[in-house]
Amino acid sequence: MTTEVLMFASLLSPVILGLIEVVKRLVRIPKKYIPLLSLAVGVLIGFLAAPLADLDLPLRLWAGGIAGLSATGLFEMGSKSPGMTRGRIAKK
């Protein structure tokens, strides 16, 4: 069961990375919130991925969370990343 969760997380990670990169380029948000956004997107994709995996819902949510954190880099959550992303929307 653990192997299936990790394999599913490995498949979701590049998708989440791409979505987060799109958000970072379009929307100007503080860098310190990017890991939280990535975690939320990962859990959401894990929830919506019912047709893609035969895992139970809690396992899909865990896989999505793991994929979201690995897509951004878990180390960013603890580091201080001041500043904003270079988003084109909502510039001051």
TrEMBL record:
<dbReference type="Pfam" id="PF06946">
    <property type="entry name" value="Phage_holin_5_1"/>
</dbReference>
<keyword id="KW-0472">Membrane</keyword>
<feature type="transmembrane region" description="Helical">
    <location>
        <begin position="59"/>
        <end position="78"/>
    </location>
</feature>
<dbReference type="InterPro" id="IPR009708">
    <property type="entry name" value="Phage_A118_holin/antiholin"/>
</dbReference>
<protein>
    <submittedName>
        <fullName>Holin</fullName>
    </submittedName>
</protein>
<feature type="transmembrane region" description="Helical">
    <location>
        <begin position="6"/>
        <end position="23"/>
    </location>
</feature>
<feature type="transmembrane region" description="Helical">
    <location>
        <begin position="35"/>
        <end position="53"/>
    </location>
</feature>
<keyword id="KW-1133">Transmembrane helix</keyword>
<keyword id="KW-0812">Transmembrane</keyword>
